[in-house]
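Here we describe the complex-level prediction in full. Unlike the single-chain runs in Section 2.1, the two entities below were treated as one system.
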Amino acid sequence: MKLSMVADHARWPKENDMIFNLSERAQAAEKAIGKENVINATIGALMDDEGKLITMDSVYSQLKSLPNNQISAYASIAGQDDYKEAVKKVCFQGNDPDGYTRVVASPGGSGAIKLAMWNYTNPGDVILTSDWYWSPYGIIGEEAGRSVANYKLFNKDGNFNTESFKDKFAEIVDKQGNIFTIINSPGHNPTGYSVSDEEWDEILDFAKEVAKDESKKIVFFIDVAYIDFVKDDLESRKFFRKFGDLPENILTIVGFSMSKGFTAYGMRMGAAIGISSNEDIAEEFYYSAMHSCRANWSNCNRGAMSVLSTLVADQAKFAQYEEEKKSYKDMLVRRAESFVEAAKGVDLEILPYRDGFFVSLPCDNPREICEELTKENLYLVPLKMGLRFAVCAVSEEKCRKAPKVIKEAIKKIKSVEGSLG
Amino acid sequence: MKLSMVADHARWPKENDMIFNLSERAQAAEKAIGKENVINATIGALMDDEGKLITMDSVYSQLKSLPNNQISAYASIAGQDDYKEAVKKVCFQGNDPDGYTRVVASPGGSGAIKLAMWNYTNPGDVILTSDWYWSPYGIIGEEAGRSVANYKLFNKDGNFNTESFKDKFAEIVDKQGNIFTIINSPGHNPTGYSVSDEEWDEILDFAKEVAKDESKKIVFFIDVAYIDFVKDDLESRKFFRKFGDLPENILTIVGFSMSKGFTAYGMRMGAAIGISSNEDIAEEFYYSAMHSCRANWSNCNRGAMSVLSTLVADQAKFAQYEEEKKSYKDMLVRRAESFVEAAKGVDLEILPYRDGFFVSLPCDNPREICEELTKENLYLVPLKMGLRFAVCAVSEEKCRKAPKVIKEAIKKIKSVEGSLG
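The structure predicted for the assembly as a whole is:
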């Protein structure tokens, strides 16, 4: 055996990040033939029509006007108190669920997932999420010996597949006694799906049924990373109320992130929000998560916390932020609608898009198709079951063009596969 | 049993941070009776003589002049390339050890410890550090089922206790087959001790002897969080060269932090630097640590990285930073010398101080003494085996006054204990 110093559990294949790699190739192409001739749909961040990262003035002027010591000082381990309050305010916007809520700061949404998964699952546990899912859920899990099981996200009508969800949920909770399930909504990455209020009711009614067996422990992790890029800010937050007054053996943890909603990706600022009808359970969440903070990253970006709390504390500034965000959201909606329409026009199958940064397309041989598309100077991300197109990063004009190009690449690969088969 | 939702491994006592609590009480006292009448030696950050946090202009003007997108964009998982190069430059300052070096960005020095400990120890392992040690080493360990064993830091002459180190090291490596040992030098927290070059030679000669058994795996984690606040920047970096050309089964990981050296505590920016004479081992370090990044916090503070790499790239700016840092370092040295001198004057026993932010005093009943001292409006931090006085946070004048006050409190508690005993 080759010499190795690392512990057995820490040995991973030397994989390069596929997304990163394609994104680099796209950038190289842009340099070589000009940005106007490349469609780079790999990037999970809001870009302007010229392919430049959008940074909100209201956010960055606030950051740069902070006194130095509000950036320099250590933050409290679980986050500054005013930040914790600000998180609840911007996340729930008045739709706070009834019950006991505790907020623990985290480095981005990823950190919140880590806090929740580490503390509420055991080594060897299976975590439930949909078959279309953001791959870091799996990476966060595998790092600590947890694995991921999937239900089918969509039924044949293109709605949330409640049956598949219930089946898998029941199977896991029967076997493990506990279940940790991640639902990324609204604006699911990678499909853009948003669970409807009626679908949430079905999900929660079922969970409540299971929870009647008091030995079962149920944790919902609701990843709302894209909640600020939905068509209706308020409507899409009403579902939070449904997590009030649940049985004591259902704990909800909301994963909040400043990355998208405040164009603050690089600042690494988020939070895990624990919600329980039992105060002891909420407190337990707080202290367990705080221990993990101390044991992983100690505390979080103080300046980023100050940006959020000072913005929220100042009505005029917050209104300016909201206006700015709205203009970008409107831009995003136009892009997504253009893509969806154009896909329909060329009969390109896409998954039901509702909100958020991405549209996905189901297909066979996604890697081959991605490679084929690079020849047309169109770059997107291959997933296990299809392709992810980042409408957040591509101009409306290019969003309108892309479906036809993709359709043809799929046809081409299909015919090659056919002739080989 | 009380209802609980959290996993068994994630249940911790609801402890409040003792340091934080005393620090809050000190601040309350400052408000009540005026800063000039309180000695607050609890804070592990550089404060000016008026008790205000010091923030270096050269660092913060750089941060605030960055283009927004250099703060906003996601960083690479393992850190931006120019940041990684800048880390090596400011950390080693030309004393790069021979061999293969890989840098992985982390949220502060804490994140670097996490990366190293997680990947190079197994659940149930014992980690070796000195009996005086920064308590988060234990917290980072216990979170993942590792525990801490100690050697005596000092021999009777007040030097590094090589005998005790060797005994414990041998005991653990015999039993476990592998050993992970943390040495925090120069400017050890909490004692201010710095391992001398001769002591490093003894330590490494012994490790090389153990490493002759090729089945043994030895990891040194060198925590250099305080390296920028030592009397001689260059002299105190020469020891890095000793980690070149070590046997392949000795891996060195240096824990770098921007917190102290750049007054950037709240930015959460550091790095783990892996050093090996074998390129595969260095690569293995890189990929394991990168997996942990993705699985814990995804990526780090992009703006903080840009601050370091732009400062390092600009000679004039870097010279300005060094000058500014020097002025604060000189201030720190004066404070520490005043404290040490005054302690000698009143015959107060302190541990051998060399560099860094803290001086420690060995004593019995540290909590009682701390409590007693609050009556004199002097606040410091109780440790298991004594008291920690933060010279970094207290004016020279107060550093000169404090030893007498502490001496009297110790006497008083001793006499109470005596009369009870």
